[in-house]
Amino acid sequence: MDDQLTLMRERGERLRQAAQAIGITRAAKAAGVPYTTLRDYMNGGEMKFSSIASLARTCGVSLDWLAYGVGEEPPPPQTQEETPSRGGHQAVIPWLDSREDGLRISKSWLTRTFRQDGTALRLVSVIGDAMLPTLVENDLVILDTANQQIHGSGLFALAVDDSILIRRLERRLDGGLRVIADNDRYPPQDLTQDEASDLKIVGEVLWTGGVPKR
User: Fold this and answer.
1) Residue 117: CB atoms within 10 Å
2) What is the C-alpha separation between 76 and 17, in angstroms, rounded?
3) Is the pTM of this model over 0.70?
4) What residue ranges in 77-200 does DSSP mark as E strands?
5) Whole-angstrom Cα distance, residue 154 to residue 81?
6) Under a CB-based contact definition with an 8 Å cutoff, are residues 205 and 140 in contact?
7) Which of 21, 26, 85, 170 has its CA 20 to 30 A from that of 148?
């Protein structure tokens, strides 16, 4: 039993590594796996073969490596790429709060990863522990500020007072929203349709990354 639990935990960590390379939310959508299910998988939950095969294809890794750790390990996720300093090959994703600098990346990575020109993308950092274990404090998050509509469920940035909070939003049948923190210490909040209309949604989370956890 201990060996089986160890195998499942190691498989979950490999899945997390592969999903973070393209963005966890994007990986779930592209593979057709509910985000909560993907989160359970990454935390060591039992995986369906059809799901793990789909996730392997989506993340661009071999099924043998994802399931059993056999074969070459994919490169670690990167927050930026080495790019030429001249020739217009670079792009900068600005911070949402308009601070100086931003995330400098190659244009090829931007178009390959997001399938857009990047004009609506903004960078924020995670505050607090409400989204553990999915996100930890100071993780980087790339938002699509052009997408503020909730269809089903997804990960979004919310403007609350003077802070930007990341939460999972689920559309309810009555037109309201359920606001969910992945950390079980924080109970979900249900908003009526009127309350949901007052919610300040900044944009949808497309990509997340951070310092490798040890």
Assistant:
1) 11
2) 7
3) no
4) 90-93, 103-106, 121-125, 140-144, 153-160, 163-171, 177-180, 189-191
5) 27
6) no
7) 21
- Cβ partners under 8 Å of residue 89, min gap 6: 83, 106, 107, 108
Q: Which residue has the higher pLDDT, 45 or 104?
A: 45
pLDDT of residue 153: 84
User: 70 exposed, middle or buried (CB, 10 Å; 0-12, 13-18, 19+)?
Assistant: exposed
Query: How many CA within 13 A on the CB side of residue 116?
Result: 12
pLDDT tens readout for residues 154-183: 899 999 998 999 999 999 989 899 999 999
Burial label, 123 (beta-carbon count in 10 A; 0-12, 13-18, 19+): buried
Residue with structure tokens 């996100």?
Answer: 135
Question: Alpha-carbon distance 100 to 105, whole Å?
Answer: 16
Least confident of 25-39, 79-93, 139-153: 79-93
Q: Residue 199 pLDDT > 90, yes or no?
A: yes
